[in-house]
Structure formats: structure tokens, C-alpha cells
Design a protein that fits this description.
A six-stranded mixed sheet has the order 3-4-6-5-7-10, sandwiched between helices. Strands 1-2 form a two-stranded antiparallel ribbon. With about 325 residues, the protein is an alpha/beta fold. The N and C termini lie far apart (about 70 Å). It has one domain: Aminopeptidase (3-Layer(aba) Sandwich). The longest helix is centred in the first third of the chain and has 28 residues, at about 1-30. The chain is built from nine helices and ten strands. Helix content is about 40%, strand content about 20%. The radius of gyration is 22 Å and the shape is globular. The structure holds N-[2-(1H-imidazol-4-yl)ethyl]acetamide (AHN) and zinc ion. Zinc ion binds next to loops.
Amino acid sequence: MKILSNSFNQVIFICCLLFLISCNLKKKDQNLVLDANNQGQIESVFNADSAYAFIGQQVAFGPRVPNSEAHKKCGIFLIDKMQQFCDTVFIQNVLLKAYNNEKLQAKNIIGVFNPEIRKRILLFAHWDSRPYSDQDIDERNYNKPIDGADDGASGVGVLLEVARQIKLKDINIGIDIIFFDAEDYGVPNFIESKLADTYCLGSQYWSQNPHVANYKAEFGILLDMVGSENAKFYKELYSVQNASNIVDLVWNTAQNKGFDKYFINENIGAITDDHLYVMKGRNIPCIDIISCDPTTHHGFGFYWHTQQDNMNNISNETLNAVGQVIMEIIYTIE
Ligand code: AHN
Ligand code: ZN
């Protein structure tokens, strides 16, 4: 009798254990949660692990320098992902002339949600990586391309995850996500040059040749270097001058969500970046969320344009902060 009740207990125990394991597996598998206030409605959330994985996948191709094999392969990967998530995808294939007259086979990749809606928000990042490590402490590295885990892949990783989430939960405004190419092919630091506008070639092209005629959005948000550990986002001058309401919206949203350790309520100087060309060319107010470090001589992170801009420097917590802020804004904007 004792033996029987013992083994009966064991069976019950094992059943409970299996049940608990299956519950846990389910939970892990799901990045959807039910919204208690909105019974039955599925609330999408930002999954930083997913964004992290998207960054890792880009970096694994090798440096995405225009005209390289890694660039070609990563382009195919990004187009495939965007086609999975977005309603429509546009590809701009274009030869762009670099500062050294090299012809770059560039691709701007544009994913569209709700193309019929007039009220639109533009989200963008660059997907190429810099052919030079011209800020490296070791000058033998100057001509080596960077991984660009933060400088390039991080913004794209966050926006791929945003796209994946929009696919899971309908949004009631238009969203356009652009991955610009050839942002980081600008004149290297070790070359004397008076040339201007050598960076941001993909966004310069798109701003003059948008994927739809007379393209317009309410505002734009650029994500540039949004994944590093201990990232600090300051209010960049062009953004403050041209889109102060969007700067306030983003920094206030971050503060309300407890991310004020990342979104610092202080101004910094102007940064020439893709948002500037989108503003100039299309007259769309834009902001740049870009991590800066006032303690370095160039003002960006210690790893900027060096061999150290790699996956070791990417933080889930930073990605989570940026992703949550973007999701909150695009789902609540009136
Ligand atoms: C310049 O270096 C001129 N502007 C910063 C834009 C940039 C480069 N963002 C990432 N890499
Ligand atoms: Zn760069």
C-alpha cells in the first residue's frame, strides 16, 4: 500500500513538473502579452533579444562595405526580412559616387506599412559599415573595415524588430522604415580633403529621388548607434532646431518609461547625419537618436570607427530602452 501511494505521488509530481515546464516554454516562446485593459486584444511589445539577434545576423556577414560580398549578402537578408514584415517593400538600386570617385553599388531598402494612409511616420537607419577604422588607436588598422555592430547594425536591428512587431499588431498610421546605404563611406580622417557631403550618400540620393513622388511624413526619427552598453543620447542641435517637439516627445516618453539614464536631458552640437539630408531635401522635421560621449575627442563612443565597434559592445538593455520608446510613440501618436 505504501509503495503504491509513493509511486502514485511520484506520478503526480512528474505530471506537475511537466505542466510547469510546458507553461514556462510557452511563456518564453511568446513575445505577445494580453492587455488586461483590452480583453482579447493582443498587445505587441518590443523584444530586445530579437533586436540583438538581428544585429548579430548582420555582423555575421562581415563588414557591410559597399561593393563587398558581405554587403551583397546582407542586402539580400534585409530585403527578405522586410518582405516578411512589411506591406510593401521598395528597393532603390543606384550607383553612387564616393569621395574617391569609386562607384558604389548602393541599395536603399524601404519597407511600408499602410501605404494608403496619409499620416505617416518615417523611421530610418543606415545599413552599410565603414570601410575604415580611421579612429583606431593602432594606425595599422586605419584601412580595415569596421564590424559596425553599433554604427549601422544597431539601428537596423531595432527597426527590424519594430517591423516584426507591427506585423503582429495592426497600427493605425502609416509607417515607413528606410535602411539607407553608403552613409559611412565619407573621407577618412587620414586624408586631407576639402570635399563636403561625402557621408550619407544613400540618404542624399533618396531625398532627391524618394520611392514615391512627393513623399512626405509628419516627422522622421533616425536611429544611429543605439545599441552600445551605457549609451547616452543627448539632444542633437539640428534635431532641436528643426523638430523640437519631436525631441521633447521622445525624451519625455523615455523619462516616463524610466529610461532617463540613456536619454539625457542636455543639448549637444550639430551632427551631420542622414536626418540632415532628409530634412533639407524633403522638408520633413527629423531627429537623430545617436549615442555620444562628451569625454572623447570626437564626441562619440570610444569604439567609434575602430575595430572595437563589435558585438561585445552591444547591450540588450540599451536596445530595450530605444525600442520601447519607439514602440510607445508610434502606437500612441494622435
Ligand atoms: C560625421 O562623422 C561627419 N558624422 C557622423 C555621422 C556618422 C558616422 N554616424 C555614424 N557614422
Ligand atoms: Zn560611422
